[in-house]
Amino acid sequence: MSDASASADRLVAQNRKASHDYSILDTIEAGLVLAGTEVKSLRNGKASLQESWASIEDGEAWVHQLHIPPYEQGNRWNLDPVRKRKLLLHRSELDKLWKALEQKGHTLIPLKLYFIRGRAKLLLGIAKGRKSHDKRDAIAEREAKREMDRAKRRDRDS
Question: Is 150 within the bounds of a domain?
Answer without folding.
Answer: no
